[in-house]
Amino acid sequence: MLIPEDRKYSSDHEWAHVDGAIVRVGITDYAQDALGDVVFVDLPKVGASVTAGGVIGEVESTKSVSEIYAPVSGTISAVNDALATSPESVNTDPYGQGWICEISIVDTAQLDALLDANGYGALTSK
């Protein structure tokens, strides 16, 4: 299972890649593997306010539907529109082309509540 060191992780299996005040969000390799083949991604709306831990969308697979949670609070500043025609990118490249959205973060201190790669690895190996 791939767990890049350059990200933070939620216990709900989202990853957060921080670039200044922008946090790019997606689901982890562990999550996409558990879901199976992704067939649809319900993206949040650009401009929407989100709260850490709140639902921002859904990922639908051949097995089930899973909610996507915001790892931080802020405003949705971008979404990955390419997922409308290529939802399988969540499976094939969860940390790259399969990203879900970007959040303009309100309080960077919220990042301290997220797990680092080692912490997420420990969580998923239980």
How would the blueprint of this fold be written?
Elements: E1 8-9, E2 14-19, E3 22-27, H1 29-35, E4 38-42, E5 49-50, E6 55-61, E7 65-69, E8 74-79, H2 89-92, E9 101-105, H3 117-124
Antiparallel strand pairs: 1-2, 2-3, 3-9, 4-6, 5-8, 6-7, 8-9
Tell me briefly what this model is.
The chain is α+β, with helices and mostly antiparallel strands. It has helices at residues 29-35, 89-92, 117-124; strands at residues 8-9, 14-19, 22-27, 38-42, 49-50, 55-61, 65-69, 74-79, 101-105.
Description of the structure:
This protein is of the alpha+beta class and 126 residues long. It has one domain: RNA polymerase II/Efflux pump adaptor protein, barrel-sandwich hybrid domain (OB fold (Dihydrolipoamide Acetyltransferase, E2P)), CATH 2.40.50.100. 15% of the residues lie in helices and 35% in strands. The longest helix is centred in the C-terminal third of the chain and has 8 residues.
